[in-house]
């Protein structure tokens, strides 16, 4: 069997920035073990698999270690592939059936806007493993939702300087750890980084799904519903974000860097 694969740099307008994802648009369902094996082979933070249904597309995401319930950059990448490779007319909304319910994406000029669930964080207890995982960083606030810890530091410099202890972080009962602070650059409202060593991703370059927690947190703190976000990984990424109190609207750009064929 042969499967087409397209690699996309998501949340970037130029190659080799943002977050790379592999996208396989298939004729129908693919065996789970095969999808996981392909994700291991691709060795990216996410590999997405989508096939057409009566209502849109069924979409699943795999890290090299496990299937995940929600992924922003690979959803953005999949929508970009559907439009750019002729699977879906550019003026049509991309609708995805996922483990997190229905997600949608729409083209808005050079940007793609996705509608994701809002997952506000709540105050959480500071545990010894968390302190160790963050290497004694000066923590301003600890929050979490059902997926991730949200750690607020006092400055962008502190976020950029953080060097986590991934062995300790992998022990936490969470998908990952989001670290955030107010942005220094006036072009952005807040900065973040995201770590998920338990899922085989020490640091994710740009994490759309983390903004399901980041956006409601910063919207309340800043008193704003429309914001610009910067993910301060080595590759960097830029996101336009907005909330209506129920959903989070995450917009990014994307560029295809590779097309190929898998023989499986």
Give your account of this protein's structure.
It contains six helices and 18 strands. The chain has helices at residues 32-42, 72-84, 128-133, 156-161, 166-169, 211-222; strands at 2-10, 19-26, 46-53, 56-62, 67-68, 94-98, 101-108, 111-117, 122-123, 139-144, 148-153, 176-182, 190-196, 201-204, 226-231, 237-243, 247-252, 254-263. It has an 18-stranded mixed β-sheet that branches. A hairpin with a 2-residue loop joins strand 7 and strand 8. It starts with a strand and ends with a strand.
Give descriptors for this structure:
264 residues, Diaminopimelate Epimerase, Chain A, domain 1, globular, single chain, alpha+beta, 6 helices, 18-stranded mixed beta sheet, 2 domains, 20% helix
Class by alpha and beta content: alpha+beta
What oligomeric state is this? single chain
One letter per element, helices H and strands E, the order comes to: EEHEEEHEEEEHEEHHEEEHEEEE
Whole-number count of domains: 2
Which CATH class of the largest domain?
Alpha Beta
| Total count of strands | 18
Could you say what the CATH architecture of the largest domain is? Roll
What count of helical segments does DSSP give?
6
CATH third-tier fold name of the largest domain? Diaminopimelate Epimerase, Chain A, domain 1
Average pLDDT level: 96
Poorly predicted spans: none
Outline: globular
Radius of gyration, taken over Cα atoms and rounded to an integer in Å: 18 Å
Largest sheet, strands/sense/barrel: 18 strands, mixed
Strand content: 35-45%
Question: What percent of the residues sit in helical stretches (DSSP H or I)?
Answer: 10-25%
- CATH superfamily of the largest domain, by name, is Diaminopimelate Epimerase, Chain A, domain 1
Instruction: Quote the distance from N terminus to C terminus.
Output: 5 Å
């Amino acid at each position: 069997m042969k499967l087409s694969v397209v690699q996309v740099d998501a949340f970037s307008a130029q190659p080799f920035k943002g977050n790379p994802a592999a996208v396989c648009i298939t004729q129908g369902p693919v065996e789970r073990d095969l999808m996981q094996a392909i994700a291991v082979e691709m060795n990216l933070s996410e590999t997405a698999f989508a096939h057409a249904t009566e209502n849109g597309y069924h979409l699943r995401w795999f890290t090299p270690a496990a299937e995940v319930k929600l992924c922003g950059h690979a959803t953005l990448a999949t929508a970009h592939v559907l439009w750019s490779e002729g699977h879906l007319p550019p003026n049509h909304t991309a609708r995805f059936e996922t483990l997190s319910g229905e997600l949608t994406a729409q083209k808005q000029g050079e940007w793609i806007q996705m509608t994701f669930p809002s997952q506000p964080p709540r105050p959480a207890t500071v545990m010894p493993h968390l302190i160790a995982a963050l290497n004694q960083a000066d923590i301003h606030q600890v929050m979490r939702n059902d997926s991730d810890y949200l750690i607020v530091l006092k400055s962008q410099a502190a976020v950029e300087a953080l060097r986590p202890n991934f062995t300790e972080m992998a022990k936490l009962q969470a998908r990952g750890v989001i670290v955030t602070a107010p942005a220094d650059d006036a072009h952005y409202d807040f900065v973040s980084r995201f770590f998920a060593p338990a899922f085989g991703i020490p640091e994710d370059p740009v994490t759309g799904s983390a903004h399901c927690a980041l956006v409601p947190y910063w919207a309340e703190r800043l008193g704003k519903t429309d914001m610009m976000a910067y993910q301060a990984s080595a590759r960097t990424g830029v996101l336009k974000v907005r909330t209506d109190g129920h959903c989070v609207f995450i917009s990014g750009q994307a560029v295809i860097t590779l097309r190929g064929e898998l023989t499986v």
